# Entry
Amino acid sequence: MINRFLCFLVGLLILSCTNNTKSINKEATMNELNTFMDQWHHSAAIADEEIFFNSLDSNAVYLGTDPSERWLKHEFEIWAMPYFQRDTAWAFKPYNRVWEFSEDSKIAWFDELLETHMGICRGSGVLVKSKDNWKIKQYNLALTLANEKMNEFRKIQNIN
# Structure
């Protein structure tokens, strides 16, 4: 009876340590990813094309606000380079970022709100960890529209 109880206690101890480690690792990964994404946004604000484009995976996709804006990395780089020749390409200030992770914590996806020159936008994306660094596989920039303004928007767009 005592042996079963001791085995039960040891099992609980091991389980609690494992869950605690996962929680700590997830917190550390979220901090790492927040720093990565904040640096990525900042690199656009200071027109640092090296950091900005090197943060994107070689086959990354950037989805812009215009329906025609589905850029592969090399296309996006060509399109955006004139903006990076200025003092600032664009300045998006992120807030309200939420992360989710794959079981093995090698894939992360998020959404965030952004203060931009276009008003409040939503960014979302997928990152993959290979070796020791994260790369953005896809980033989607979307305009936000309050529900109560939908009818006005539909009129502007000539949507019945």
In short: The chain has one domain: 2-156. The longest strand covers residues 119-130.
